[in-house]
Design goal:
Radius of gyration: 24 Å
CATH architecture of the largest domain: 2-Layer Sandwich
Organism: Companilactobacillus suantsaicola
Protein name: PDZ domain-containing protein
Largest sheet: 6 strands, mixed
Keywords: Membrane, Transmembrane, Transmembrane helix
Order of helices and strands: HEEEHEHHEEHEEEEEEHEEEHEHHEH
Shape: globular
GO molecular function, one term: ATP-dependent peptidase activity
Distance between the termini: 81 Å
Strand content: 25-35%
Pfam families: Lon_C, PDZ_2
Length: 348
């Protein structure tokens, strides 16, 4: 009898241990978007081989992605700064690796745009080199499914060197649907080739390669600027990188000893665009002691209201978040680079 009681206690303890481990560590197939970090852009940017050493900070802000376990899902209930997403909502049909590669492309594109916007504003010379078309996705029926990969850059098709994605698309449109094409591409800096047939594109009467693509470019300025964001991905640091680059190439002390944070995409002409997860970024910036937060003041058009009646733009979402956490950090609306620069110059 004693043996049975002891055995039952051991089995019971093991069962409880398994349940506890499962509660804390078993993936549910969902993810949590949570406040990330606020990073000083000066550590990522070098102009003429040098980092910015002036007092103060221009902070880019991020969101964190956490695997949803029963514990983290339960903990997130009622938390306005943690949002639950399914894998499909977060990544679409991409694998984790493909998702990260696309995020890295978005960051590269953001840093290129930042250089162009900053140098244009400062009236400094820069060049823009066309590298090819970047592969964002490959359809399941594509003959190139296991030949090309997300992250590859196509440089030529049938020895035709194109100058932009539109030229590439128009070339493919003119091909016979039974054509076999030869693709020159680069992967991890190495030149490669692949051949395959065209396939019917879903929802159209056309045939093509079955890939989603975008232009891949590289911007270089004088003096030379290098931006290396490491593992940080996505396009939302564009504005803050632009401010950092601009302050260095013009030798202007926009920070004036302040801790300034913000977010927003940047276009080469300086237009600031909206991003996701701004509430979490406000939270992260406030936690780092920022006194100013730049938020995209994207226009809410009639077309947006038609398809999304409850749409709230980034600036207003940021103000709501700041009110919830009772921060003294000032939320500043920006539509373009000039808005941010003018604010910093007037409030030194």
């Amino acid at each position: 009898m004693r043996f049975n009681k002891t055995r039952n206690k051991i089995f019971g303890a093991i069962f409880i241990f398994i349940v506890v481990v499962a509660f804390f560590f078993t993936p549910t197939g969902y993810y949590l978007e949570v406040p990330g970090s606020a990073e000083d852009t000066s550590q990522f940017v070098k102009v003429d081989g040098k980092h910015d050493t002036k007092k103060g900070s221009l902070l880019l802000t991020t969101v964190g992605i956490v695997t949803g376990t029963p514990f983290t899902m339960l903990k997130s209930l009622g938390n306005d700064f943690e949002t639950v997403y399914s894998q499909e909502e977060l990544m679409g049909n991409e694998s984790n690796q493909e998702y990260m590669q696309v995020q890295q492309y978005y960051m590269k594109s953001a840093t290129n745009n930042a250089i162009q916007a900053a140098y244009s504003k400062a009236k400094k010379p820069f060049t823009k080199k066309y590298l090819g078309v970047y592969i964002m996705d490959i359809t399941d029926n594509s003959d190139f499914k296991n030949k090309l990969a997300v992250g590859d850059t196509i440089t030529a098709i049938n020895d035709f060197k194109f100058k932009n994605a539109d030229q590439f698309i128009n070339y493919v449109k003119k091909l016979n649907k039974h054509s076999t094409v030869r693709i020159d591409f680069t992967r991890d800096g190495k030149k490669k080739t692949a051949s395959g047939k065209l396939v019917k594109l879903a929802g159209t009467k056309r045939h093509g390669l079955g890939i989603t693509l975008t232009d891949n470019t590289e911007a270089k300025g004088t003096p030379a600027t290098n931006i290396n964001a490491g593992d940080i991905g996505g396009p939302s640091a564009g504005l803050m990188f632009t401010l950092q680059v601009y302050s260095q190439i013009t030798n202007q002390n926009l920070k004036a000893g302040r801790t300034i944070a913000g977010t927003g995409t940047i276009a080469p002409d300086g237009t600031v665009g909206p991003i996701g997860g701004i509430e979490k970024k406000v939270y992260a910036a406030s936690a780092m002691g920022a006194t100013v937060f730049f938020a995209p003041d994207d226009p809410v058009t009639k077309l947006i209201k038609k398809y999304e009646p409850g749409y709230v733009n980034n600036y207003n979402l940021a103000k709501r978040a700041a009110k919830k956490i009772h921060t003294k950090m000032k939320i500043v609306p920006v539509k373009n680079l000039d808005d941010a620069i003018n604010y910093l110059e007037k409030t030194k």
